[in-house]
Amino acid sequence: METSEAKLPISVCIPTKDRPEELKTCIKSILEQSELPAEIVIIDDGNLSQAVYRQLIEPHARFIYFKKDKPSTAASRNLAKSLTSNNLILMVDDDTALDKEYIKNIFKIFNKDINKEIGIVGGIIVNRKRKSWFDMLYRRLFLLDNGKPGRLLPWGFQTVFNGIVQDTIVDWVSTCAACFRRDVLEEFFFEELEGGRNALEDVEFCWKVFKSKKYKMIVTPTARLYHYHSSTHREAMFNTGFKQAFKRCCIFKKYCDRTLKNTILFGWAMTGHILGMIGTGRLNTALGNIRGIVSFLKERLKTENYSAKNWNR
Fold first, then answer.
1. How far apart are CA 208 and CA 43, in angstroms?
2. Which tens digit of pLDDT belongs to each residue from 108-159?
3. Which of 104, 158, 163, 233 has the fewest CB within 10 Å, making it most exposed?
4. Is 12 helix (H, G, I), strand (E, B) or coil?
5. Which residue ranges make up each domain of the chain?
């Protein structure tokens, strides 16, 4: 039975798959918050022992457990709105740990938003390795970054969150630990790819929100978290690279103005991205990237040929 002390009207939703130890660390960081959320929801794509987590959570917050058969983090995130009961929904990856003030500081931003213009608020990953001056120069050379944090670039790439020292309006938010207004999740959805974990679904989701011009997205340095990128049940790097590149091509096709200039810049940035993978020893990821681009082009060619045949009938 949960305690009767006042809770913040936030639901925390954790999609997970066979990472029991990482999940316990994540939940522990939530239960150690300076102000607790009202509800914690676990969406399980694996085989967790529900009783263990119920015993851990229920003395402190309402607990909801949902078992899915088909693994997909995007599908789990899409389920959050139907499983939760609060208007603010904090999505948390199972391999993260939140600073003790994380939820309180996220809630403060929404609470001050009287006109409900803010749709998503995210924090800063404090254990992310800072990029060297060479890395930053390389990214600028290949148009993978423009020096402005949290921007969606017209050729389909996005910039990182380096240098944010105050609450900042951005074009996209990493969903490893981001809080959504329910209206946003009801209006937009995370795109799903078949087979296990997805790639760039948070970037694509934010492209939809950004293009709609209906909601602001904020990153605050007062909400700090650790993202440990667990190796447990990670896909083969080739598969990850494949999905990343395929989704990147989809993003450019769906959301970017495909002028000749932007198309050339997309190709230049993608080339730099792949060369960067090779240069840092991630050859399998780079090969997956190349395969993803080829598969996207083949699929697009089939679609265009099919449309042309129908047009000529």
1. 24
2. 999 999 999 999 999 999 998 877 889 999 999 999 999 999 999 999 999 9
3. 163
4. strand
5. 8-227, 237-312
